[in-house]
Amino acid sequence: MKIHYFLILSVWGWIGLSSSMFAQKTHIISGHVFEKEAKKPLIGVKIEERISHQGVYSDSSGYYRISVADDSALLHISHPTFSPQTHRLFSKSDTALNFYLKSFSLKEVEILGYKKIKHGINQLSISAEYIEKLPSLLGETDPIKALSLFPGIQSAFEGSSGLIVRGGTPGQNHLFIDGITLYNPYHLLGIISAFNTDALASVVLYKGMYPASYGNRIASVIDVQTKSTINKPEHKFSIGLLSSKVLWNGKMSRFKGQYMLAARVSYLSLLSLPLFFSYQSEKRDNYFGYWLYDVNGNINIEPSKAGRFQLSVFGGRDHWSSRDGIFKQSENILRSQWGNLGTSLTHNWKNNQGWKGESSISTTSYTYARKSSEYDNSLPNGRASEPSQITFGLGDVGLQTSVNKTSSQYLSFSSGLGLKRIATKSTIAAGENGKSLSVD
């Protein structure tokens, strides 16, 4: 029994002796870290031993304490705003060591760029390049939805292009494109706007305190400008999931001018072709089709001394049709179409005395038409009822002129005059040769 105790004690003694022989001896290095110029303690300075990869940070008084090996130590002292230091130490006893770091200054950095978003007190301006970089719905970039990303502006509902500006309704926003008023600037029942991004140069939104030259609305003013100046001709064609677009612009050297033509057309009706074939083969009792288009164009001419003339044209339309019943036997057919059409002619001039002016004449119209018919081939005339049609129209003709005098960087004078005539018309007709009721 004594032999067993002796062996156990011998083993434990040998293990302890081996541990003390092979254990690495360490010592403590401690001190403070100061700023060299002001002699102030620095907090958050990292002191790292590069061989063992152990490190500590100085406390609020600049104090640090780190354990290193006896043979040698490589200390690296670093801070984001001070020049780093590296020290190699050979010591076998505890050592007190202070470090003094020197702040460094960056060299002059020059940043060049182009400002694509302009913010004023109540004004926001974005470029077409910025809009194209934003996320899009099925490949359709939308300048109106881009505005909803900024403070004080939100969409009327998810996925809609209608804007609520500081609590106003979408109908309280005044939208222009090259001075042409758009009374219904939306496609696809408000999901996308009527603005083709390929044709745009800039979009300016006034959330309040907008210039008196706009007027006629209480929520906001959105002024959209198409491309009127180009550096080189551009020919572009693109195909998307919802629509296809084409852009064609160039220079007219003979007239010292430029031109731009952009168009967009959707092929949503192609997606509903399977429904039509099913309806035609009487496998289903209803069918619908929808398609849209819009066109933008302008011509800019700048004679030598007469200033600059710009003629702009905008047109957009939506078509909807639906059928229900039995194909070519007994059917109810409904067709609807609505859209905008407008033109504007603008003249800009300026002289060397600081005077500049602008005069424009514009006309715009919005129309909505719906026609319904009911057919039954079992009847003598093939009609179960006379066709009916409802038409609504809203348009205006405007004339506006303004002059501006800039006296200095801080003083300018503006004056202008605007005239506008607004007209509406509604028509309800029953039968091809029947009576109609018109309201103007």
Give the structure's gist in a few sentences:
By secondary structure, the protein is mainly beta. 10% of the residues lie in helices and 53% in strands.
What does this structure look like?
This protein has 440 residues and is mostly beta strands. It is built from five helices and 28 strands. The chain folds into two domains: 76 residues, Sandwich (Immunoglobulin-like), CATH 2.60.40.1120; 323 residues, TonB-dependent receptor, plug domain (Ferric Hydroxamate Uptake Protein, Chain A, domain 1), CATH 2.170.130.10. Strand 22 and strand 23 form a beta hairpin. The chain is elongated, with a radius of gyration of 38 Å.
CATH architecture title of the largest domain:
Beta Complex
Order of strands across the main sheet: 19-20-21-22-23-24-25-26-27-28
| CATH homologous superfamily heading of the largest domain | TonB-dependent receptor, plug domain
Share in helix = under 10%
Number of strands: 28
The shape is elongated
Strand content: over 45%
**How does the helix and strand content classify structurally?**
mainly beta
Would you identify the regions where 5 or more consecutive residues have pLDDT less than 50?
Answer: 1-11, 13-23
**CATH fold-level name of the largest domain:** Ferric Hydroxamate Uptake Protein, Chain A, domain 1
Distance between the termini: 124 Å
**Number of DSSP helical runs:** 5
Give the C-alpha Rg: 38 Å
* Integer tally of domains: 2
What's the CATH C level of the largest domain?
Mainly Beta
Report mean pLDDT, rounded to a whole number: 82
Largest sheet descriptor: 10 strands, antiparallel
